[in-house]
Amino acid sequence: MVAVISGLRSALAGRGAFFGAIDRNRAFLGGWVYAGSALWAAVHLSLGVLLWALGAYFYRDGVGPGVLLVTVTALCALMLLRRTAPGTALAAGTAVLVVDTVFGPSSGVYLAYGDLLYAASVWGGRRSALAALLGAVAGAVAVMGAGLWAYAAGYVDGALGYLQLIGLYVMVFALPVVTGWSVREHRGRADLERERAEERIRMAELDRARAVAEERTRVARELHDVIANHMSAVAVQSTAALSRRTPDPELTRRVLEVVRDNSVQGLEEMRRMIGVLRAGERPAEERVTPRVDETDLLVRTAREAGMRVEVREHGEPGPLPPQVDAAAYRIMQESLTNAQRYADPRRVEIGLAYPPAGEAGTLVVTVENPLPDGGAAAPDPLGAGMGLAGMRERAVLLGGRFTAGPTADGRVWRVRAELPCAVLEPSDGAAARGGAEAEQ
């Protein structure tokens, strides 16, 4: 039995002859199978029959009272469509109202017709609601004109009778339309606010996803810089030691010292990064990443790996913005890592040109190393191609310029980065402009 009732309920909800598709989550006066509309129609029918029984209608000679009872029943039956097809119900109800006016009229029909005006104004389409509004305005003009004519002809007793006629029209016809349009306007505003709230939620989700992607990119870049530098030194020294055919205890000791130092330094930097990530806070560049004034650490590591490194400074070293400090250090670190792989002979020159003290200028970082006689070597497949891309990205994000490549004679590989020291939050336009300059 329960299954039969559930099947009947689903059939009525999906393909009811009068009811159409049903939203089961509506309130009672528009709930399952629009039971509210049926109940509301029954209430109006009972009231209409009661008024008809009490004689609340105009009697015309030659017209039986049963005709007015039929019009009341027909109009109340149309109220079953007040939620599914309010425009159609209003059009058919207008025809019934005309018939009732010709043969009567009766009070019950006018009360039910006012509800159809309200339903068309609230739930009807734009055309149906506008038709109800224009019809009410046209009816008001007609009633006022007819009332003035009746008042002048003596059919209406004084000005009070004329005002009563206008008031009756307002209550029966105008008030439902005005109320319906007011409810419709409030619902439209509520829907608009709901859409705006959903749009803000979507935008917040996009911002969150973009922030996560940017943070992942930054962490990947930092890890690459740390691992590539120290692991490259370990690989170079290990390869040099293994390539010797005769054991050399002193050389082996120096190689192990370099391997130990690079391993310890790499682990320390990774430990600092992972500590900040576990703390759930955004890493502060001035606290987590090294500074330009720690270049001697890079130089010492490279020299222990067998490189000959020279550092030339121009200008007076001074405090730098944290972003510039970190970017310059990482660019030098990556350049030294590449030089350990490709430089022949193993020599590197680092140039640092500081901006004037107390002025907004540009920090210029230059790293040069000689190339083999055959020119630039093929990229190391273990490098993953992230080195140059990461250095360029660091410079572009700060609104600076970056170039990397062999010189005109093809004998020297030069990396040059110009980093503005008056750093603000980089904008998309600045990043795009910096990217274009980097490509040039």
From TrEMBL:
- Asked if the Swiss-Prot or TrEMBL record annotates the protein with the keyword Transmembrane, the reply is yes
Q: Which residues cross the membrane?
A: 37-59, 66-85, 91-118, 130-153, 159-183
UniProt keyword list: ATP-binding, Coiled coil, Kinase, Membrane, Nucleotide-binding, Phosphoprotein, Transferase, Transmembrane, Transmembrane helix, Two-component regulatory system
Q: What class of enzyme is it?
A: transferase
Fetch the Gene3D superfamilies from UniProt: 1.20.5.1930, Histidine kinase-like ATPase, C-terminal domain (3.30.565.10)
Alphabetical list of SUPFAM superfamilies matching this protein: ATPase domain of HSP90 chaperone/DNA topoisomerase II/histidine kinase (SSF55874)
GO MF, one term, reads: kinase activity
UniProt protein name:
histidine kinase
Q: Which species is the source of this protein?
A: Nocardiopsis endophytica
